[in-house]
Amino acid sequence: MTAKILLAIFFLTAASAASAAWDAGAGLEDYRWVEYPEGIDGTPKEYGPRSALFVNWTQDGERGLLYAWRAKLYAGKVDYDTFLLAAPHTPVSTQTEYSGAASEAQLLYRSNVGSYKLDQIGGLGLDVWRRAILNSGGSQIEDFSILFLRAGLRLAKPGKQAGLHAELGIKYPVSTNEDAHLTSLGYTTNPAISPGRAASGYAEIGYRINPRFDVLGYYDSWRFKRSEDVRANKPGDLPGTYWLIHQPESKMDAVGIKLLVSF
To answer: Which band of pLDDT confidence, cut at 50, 70 and 90, is reported for residue 200?
Structure first.
């Protein structure tokens, strides 16, 4: 439902715009995911490269209220250093496959700052991804769905003029959902897990070479607190007994570079 709302916002704003600009391109990022489990001396880490495709749409305008839409598709196989849950928690290494997509509708308020334009940005977005942890018996699947708000500032030359530009701000997840596919791990139930919400930062700096090409470096992140426990059962559990399961505190950081082509 949220994805349909975001698409509807995009198409409605696109239809109402007198003129608009499109950017599309590709990038490569260094991805890191770290978890902080309680009561265990260890921090599971994922790290490695991911590739990404980007599509941006922005309403043209010299000043005032404007609309924009951002989308990102990403995928990659990264290394995963972790440990066995059973004592003595022996370290093991494997890999994790990622695939995901983000879509975001934005409102911009544009004003003049000397020879630059300053955009005050507010956004509503949805980021969904699948985390497939590889093991000898197949894959352990985790699906994440994060509805978030964005607030930021962007400083850039007007139109498609050559020059430096930059953007920075914060994101806050207003709704978090994790499907850990517990039935595939031997449980009889699969309750939804909700990672704890926390603000995270993002930034990018770029140089528009000419009206056609733009190269950017960027940083993105997520911060999740420990989730509340959920209860799940396994076949053969005694009546009234259950397992407590949670997503530990987790941090994601991605640093990348991308090239965009303007239309």
So the answer is: very high
Start-end of H helices in 46-138: none
Buried b (16+ CB within 10 A) or exposed e, 101-115: ebbbbbbbebeeeee
What is the phi/psi pair of residue 185, to 5°? -100, 10
pLDDT in tens, 7-44: 544 444 444 444 789 999 999 999 999 999 987 777 99
* C-alpha to C-alpha distance for 244 and 4, rounded to whole angstroms: 34
This prediction has a pTM of 0.90
Give the distance from CA 63 to its chain's centroid.
29
C-alpha distances (whole Å) from 202 to each of 23, 83, 127, 161 are: 20, 30, 15, 24
What is the distance between the alpha carbons of residues 195 and 204, in angstroms, rounded to a whole number? Answer: 26
CA distance 100 to 26: 15
The strand pairing partners of 58, in sequence order, are 21, 68
For the 2-262 domain, the top CATH level (class) is mainly beta
The residue extents of the domains of the chain are 2-262
Q: What are the tens digits of pLDDT across the range 209-253?
A: 999 999 999 999 999 999 999 999 999 899 989 999 999 999 999
